[in-house]
Amino acid sequence: MNPSDHTYDQPEKERARWLALCHAVECLTTHRQQSSVITLNQFDAAIKYACDLIERTGQRPYPHEQVKDAAARFKQLHESRVGKKSAKDLTVLFLAGPNPMNDLRVLTELGVRAGHEKVSNFLRNLARPARLERATLCLEGFQSPAKSAIC
After folding, report:
1. What is the C-alpha separation between 71 and 63, in angstroms, rounded?
2. How far are the Cα atoms of 20, 103, 149 from residue 110, in angstroms, in the given order?
3. Which of 16, 33, 51, 75 is the S-S candidate for 63 at Cβ 3.0 to 4.6 Å?
4. What pTM, to 2 d.p., does this model score?
């Protein structure tokens, strides 16, 4: 087997990496409104369907009025979480494989900003085999809940 077969910088892997990460960044920026678990249009349709069904079956009076405040709160929460973002606004939890620099290079080319001090800490810790299993790369603004030696 050719030694280059064990690396992650072959042209087909570079292309797959670029396409996958580019798609992820586009979903989280350009197509953000459509990429959420539920869009506001889907939420409105589900609420209308449920309230219409409750009204038709006579289970409760005026169901649309009863959910109006809760629906408004959900829409505010949705907007605060989904909102508009550019690549530089993204916070990324980067789970590194054998060669993290390939993915990191593509992410930075796409405009995702990395915290350089944390990147260098990550690379320094890669040299310690005991820490390799729990190694994650923390990018701008992300703190591990466990507050590992890396983050």
Report:
1. 12
2. 12, 11, 28
3. 51
4. 0.52
